[in-house]
Amino acid sequence: MNFTKNTLLILTLLPILFFISLLGWRVDFFRMSDNRGNIIFSSPAALGHKFITRYIQSVELTPVEDEYYIVGGRLWSWEERVRSSKAGLPFQGAKNGRFIMTKDWLIYQGGRLSWQTYYYRIGNEYLGLNQTMFEPYEIYDAYKVLPDRKLLVEVYRKPYMYESMQSLENTVDTP
What we know:
The chain is an alpha+beta fold. Helix content is 15%, strand content 41%. Strands 3, 4, 5, 6, 7, 8 and 10 form a 7-stranded antiparallel β-sheet that branches. Strands 2-1-11-9 form a 4-stranded antiparallel β-sheet, with no helix packed on it.
């Protein structure tokens, strides 16, 4: 009889304790905010989650795509794709990376660069044409909603229950 009560108590408490610990579990978050601290986008990020930026380089006026992955609480630069190697664009592969040349792109992979935070300057419809994509969301035309802004892009760890999330679709343009 006593064994049955203890077993029932344990079977009742285990799921409750599991959910309590799950809410306090530290997870990686990806966040973009403006220079005033207004959160533009915030989302939990799984290991290996992808973030892509696209823009038109200001001197060569050529497309550039940067691909980052979230690993270990940091944003790792995985790949940069360019169509030209002049005027401030990469011209050789990273020491710890590789260079791939295709019909459409010059691709630089690896290099072991990572950040917890970095600044991303958004242009406008005349300069930059910046776009961002955070999986699983679609490509977002940042230059239309956030023109001429400097965004702070960051990855950090925090207990899941203490973080609020905001989607790019809910962004309000406040200069």
